[in-house]
Each structure stands twice: as C-alpha cells, then as structure tokens.
Amino acid sequence: MTTPDPLTAEELDELDELTQAATPGPWFVRSLDDERAMSLVAVSTTPDTGLGERWPDFDHHEIVAATLVQHPRYVDTADECWDENAQFIAAAREAVPRLVAEIRGLRRQLEARSREAN
User: Fold this and answer.
1) Which of 34, 31, 15 shows the shortest CA–CA distance to 67?
2) What CA–CA distance (Å, rounded) separates 44 from 31?
3) pLDDT (tens digit, 9 = 90+) per residue, 69-91?
4) Could you tell me the end-to-end alpha-carbon distance of the chain, in angstroms, rounded to an integer?
5) Residue 41: strand pairing partners
6) What DSSP string runs through 83-96?
7) pTM (predicted TM-score)
8) Cβ contact 44:62 at 8 Å
9) Is the model more confident about 7 or about 58?
C-alpha cells in the first residue's frame, strides 16, 4: 500500500469549507422502514430510536443521506456495506473538522520547532 501525498493547505481549506457548508452535526445512523423505502439505512441529525419508524412517523427533514433503500431499489451497494457506509458518513461529520484542525495544529508546531532550531 502506498502512502498518499500529504494534504495541501488548499485541500485543507476545501475540506474546511465543505464542513462549514454541510448540515450541522452530529449525525447518526438510523434504521427506518416503510413500503416506500423498505429497510432504509440513513444518516440523520437525530439518533436512532430502535423502533424502525415508518413514514410519516419520522421527519424527512432530519435525513442527511441514505445508504440503503431496497424497495424500490434506489440506493444499494454491491458490497452490501450500507451499514458500514452510513457509520462512516456519520462519523466523518465530526471527524473531518477535528482532523483538519489537528493537522493544522501539528503543522504549526513543526514550523515553530523548525524556527527554533534555526
């Protein structure tokens, strides 16, 4: 496996802009179900209740993304990683801004140490 190139300052700025433009977090994985969206695995701004609500018993305004909608076959991945994909998307909402901030902080520390060494 090759190591990816480090993120440029411009790429970090782009990630920061994407984060700021996206629906505020935190995001959660929800399992919903109805005749229009059978076995819906969604990313939502509200936590899962464990009840597998059927429409209209959930607010569609809370849904940020879906990783599985089986009937009709709107959203489905060949590798069947819909739960994992939803967990990744939900986690990324909080992780990406933290990672960007950490990278910038570590780079500032490296620059400061480099100046001190010279």
Assistant:
1) 31
2) 10
3) 877 677 878 898 989 999 999 99
4) 35
5) 31, 68
6) HHHHHHHHHHHHHH
7) 0.83
8) yes
9) 7
